[in-house]
Design goal:
234 residues, alpha/beta, Uracil-DNA Glycosylase, subunit E, 6-stranded mixed β-sheet, two-stranded antiparallel ribbon
């Protein structure tokens, strides 16, 4: 897989995942917002939210950014906000998680064959990261992708996540247009699936229904359960 070169060396943890430090200085606007949140919400996580899930997944789920009172509070992607109320039960239903989702990082939920991360690791004001912030934080997504030998599927939740994944893989947007339910073979043996983000706005307006989201996860399940194609004799 072709991976965009990271702009600088991120911190490596003991499990060889790459995450920004708690006081990552790379995006001044997000640093300032983090400082304000630490004053306003001293009990929140208030740091770049690390990826959560299996150490060597076959499925990588990529969201946009932590929510102020969701992942920024809990320290776990999609935990404690409305989006997690759709995402995690669906993962449980299709065998990508075990346990029970309790909207708390101590709920005992475990992901199976899958990992969840975000295109931007820090909570942005008004849930809207800027283009330079997305580009700067992409180095951590690059590491997420380049260090997963078993990866066979990526789920992009929303257009920004989709485009950031393509950039991290060194792919052109025009060759892989975003659409809900779209499926792209971005590398031999690696497929990119698209879904509208499971945000409160999208679900409340009916842009994304439970059935629509489950249909995408069901196709990913079928993709991963299918036997690998036999190699061609030359």
């Amino acid at each position: 897989m072709t991976i965009e070169k990271a702009h600088s060396e991120p911190r490596a943890s003991g499990d060889e995942s790459f995450e920004p430090p708690d006081d990552c200085p790379l995006c001044p606007r997000l640093v300032e917002f983090r400082a304000r949140n630490r004053t306003a919400f001293p009990d929140f996580f208030n740091a770049p939210v690390p990826a959560f899930g299996a150490a060597n997944p076959r499925l990588l789920i990529v969201g946009l950014a932590p929510g102020l009172k969701g992942a920024n509070r809990s320290g776990r992607p999609f935990t404690g906000d409305y989006a997690g109320d759709l995402l995690y039960p669906t993962l449980l239903k299709f065998g990508f998680a075990t346990g029970q989702y309790g909207a708390d990082p101590d709920d005992g939920l475990t992901l199976v064959e899958s990992t969840i991360t975000n295109a931007v690791r820090c909570v942005p004001p008004a849930n809207k990261p800027t283009t330079p912030e997305i580009r700067t934080c992409r180095q951590f997504l690059v590491q997420d992708l380049s260090n997963q030998a078993n990866l066979r599927a990526i789920l992009a939740l929303g257009r920004i996540a989709h485009e950031s994944v393509l950039a991290a893989l060194g792919k052109k947007r025009a060759a892989f247009p975003f659409a809900h339910g779209a499926e792209h073979e971005v590398e031999p043996g690696l497929r990119l699936f698209d879904s509208y983000h499971c945000s409160r706005y999208n679900t409340n307006t009916g842009r994304l229904t439970t059935e629509m989201f489950e249909a995408v996860i069901s196709r990913i399940r079928a993709c991963l359960d299918a036997p690998p194609a036999p190699s061609r004799d030359l």
